[in-house]
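Hi R.,

Here's the input for the zinc ion complex you asked about:
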Amino acid sequence: MKIADPTTGVSPRHRMLSRCCVLAGLIFFALAVPAWAQHPAAKTTADRPTVRVILFVPSDRRPPDDSLVGLNKVADLTDRLILGGIRKWGFRTGEPSLFQRVNGVVRPIIVAGKMPAKHYTKPSVHKEAIRSALQQNGVIAQPHDVWWVFVYVGEPPERYSDFRGGFSEEFGGWSVANYDSRMSRINIDAPLASGLNDTIALKGTIHELGHGFGLPHIGPKSRLKRGNTLMGPINAIYRRISGDQSGKAYISQASAAMLAIHPIIRGKTPSDTRLIPTKVSNARLISSPGATAGFQLSGRVAAETRPLVAVVGDHHEKRPGEYWTKHYIGPVGRDGRFQVHVNEAVPVDGEIKLWFLFDNGTMTADGQLRGARGAITLPYRFTAQQWQLTSP
Ligand SMILES: [Zn+2]
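And here is the predicted structure with zinc ion in place:
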């Protein structure tokens, strides 16, 4: 908002009038948007795709005084977990942070809700939050931004509980979770699923951001002994079923491969992000010796642009739930041939979900839907100590 310059050659009466108008405007503006929501940093524009952090505060709440500290701790931890996890698996990252930082600090976009806290219980809150950020806060989005909406409905035990994330045609990647005022006190060096980090559902918060990046549910691999996966089951269920009380959590190799092609991780926007349909031929399973050692899926993929990586989700029928689905990856050769080794297979029937990662940051197999939803399904049987595809 521009305030009139009193040194201009306007007559005293007009000056008085214009001052009244400015004053009235200021009062109106103050009523429409609370002072704490008039955040100058909210107008800054990133020149590359980033994760956009929104702190959404209903009309009858005020943001906690130390929310900047809390959100920056969460952002620092997330950078370390995601970017560190990607590099640990040998993939490249083009940027030092998922976020736009000014002097190292992430400035959240603080958005005032139109309604009181009790109104905001559903994930659709992300729509009001993102639209307000774009319209009222003047944020200019990049096409591949991922929105991370934190909803603050009050001090614990009050909390926003319907955590979600995904992709929408309107906003691209989005996710919504609770802002817990105890985030300012977390220890970012502590295991992700332990102590206060566990109490405030920090893994669940970042898990939803993972969905915003297009990640499906991906379960932990017991042989790695690295605890739960970011995209795996919720902490309490993981502890009960696995018996692992370490509180550790990690980014799976398949997640790292999917994240590594995303424009935010690469730090650049691809010119063409169409979903590319694929055709898979000669798909077959070769069981490794000893039956329980696993199997290898091989085949050949044809597409307008050759994909980089093949992804296999092993949906066998003994999984404790979808969150436990183990995923495996393998490179796609110049001739389109690929091999993916499933080394924690279970001797039961199941089905494989197969899809591909492309250089333009997309993932699909059918060219219609994104990620796992656009996968090819290959049912298999375990019979005579061998895994076999039921329909080649
Ligand atoms: Zn989920």
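One thing worth noting: Residues 40-266 form a domain with the Collagenase (Catalytic Domain) fold (CATH 3.40.390).

Cheers,
M.
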